[in-house]
Amino acid sequence: MRVLIPSALLGLVFLSAAAQTTDAPVGFDNKSNGVTDDATHQTDQTTFEEVEQLSDGLGPLYNAQSCRECHQNPVSGAASQVTELRVGHQGPDGRFRNPEIPIAHGAEVITGRSLVNDRAICPNAAFPTTEIQERVPDTETIRTFRLSLNLLGDGFVEAVADQTLVDLAQQQCKSSHKKICGQVLRVPIVEAPGQMGVGRFGWKDQHASLLSFAADAYLNEMGITNRLQPDEVTKLCNTVSEPNDKPGADGLSDIDHFARFIRATKAPARDMQLASSPLARKGNTLFEKIGCGSCHTETMTTAPAGTKINGGMFAIPVALGSATFHPYGDFLMHDVGTGDGILQAIPEHYGKKVFAIMSDYMSKQDFEGSRNKIRTAPLWGVRLRPRLMHDGASLTFRDAIARHTGEAKQVATEFERLKRDDQEAIIEFLKSL
Question: For 115-127, what is the mean pLDDT?
């Protein structure tokens, strides 16, 4: 039997649900969003900013000595101009292949990762004749740079229910008549072997969990092994026992402090003075009208406090539960004509053990279909980034918009059809984010 609910009562239901949500705190003040107290947040930030030494296990291959080195503009946890290098090649079957990079005059070949580290700890005093610096072989013809991502507010992103992102992808596809269809990738939760979640972190949505993300970066960007990523990329020049990242007196390892720090950050704040100007408000309306909001989703709401996520390993705290935030991104994979051809669903992100356990599950995902796709760049805080798009190759908002083709071709065309004054209004709106 079909039950009809009076519209007045239905309105009360929605009002009640809306009343239970809170706005996510925003700001660049280095203070906690409520997940921890400010003192604890400062302690976690100190760990996030710590410069790693050889005695800590830095390297042997690495890109940076501190999380802050890649995530600091205008405060720790934000984005930066720092890029990483990824390469590979296409096999005879047309599928992506990871590079094979010889080091130490061919004594060892690095495989199983698309990342090429820019730095190495030797030759040094202890290993004066061992040279392990990676260089890109001529065989690796697929090459790209990737900008470091903003991490501020990512605790709220982590707390969005998987189904919310799945529903968003389906809604996009339906409303656009299959012209815009965000791809959902289910990826391993490294701290919960055997469990998967909807990816949302990284340019290729390679992680669903901030702890998994932190462990990945600690190994692959700084060369610090940890309990989730215990295997060194190379044993050459290595003198520190594994895992390098060991629990402190509080029982927490560095990766735990990193994840807690990110979860407690406030979301990027807008320039409210500019946002309230007539021109920016007009631009906001036009931004939605021409379809930019299809992928640059303005508003999302997190799951309720107490909800278990990340394979049951993390319960959403009160500070992150039922929170409304404004990322201007959908955290889904799209082909907008700027994809780099790199396949990211490879062992480097999940570790050999978890990758082996999950390989059957992952084979059911269309990871190969994501090669030329990139996660929608969330636009919160974009006014503070002088280099745009995943590779940093666009230097103005007009440059970035012009590069949008593929699924975004029609939207970019609509922008070009606007009068110059209307285009400027959209750009003014972007400058307020």
Answer: 97
Residue 6 φ/ψ, nearest 5 degrees: -55, 140
Euclidean distance between CA atoms 89 and 95, whole angstroms:
8
Helix/strand number for the chain, H first, E second: 14, 17
What are residue 300's DSSP bridge partners? 325
Q: Determine contact, residues 256/47, Cβ cutoff 8 Å.
A: no
In whole angstroms, give the CA distance from residue 158 to residue 147. Answer: 20
Q: What is the mean pLDDT of the chain?
A: 94
Helix orientation angle between 278-289 and 420-431, rounded to the nearest 10 degrees:
100
The terminus-to-terminus CA distance of the chain in angstroms comes to 48
- pTM value is 0.94
- What does 389-428 look like in DSSP terms, one character per residue? STTS-B-SHHHHHHT--GGGHHHHHHHHHS-HHHHHHHHH
Task: Enter the tokens of residue 33.
Answer: 């969003």
Helix (H) or strand (E) holding 38: helix 38-49
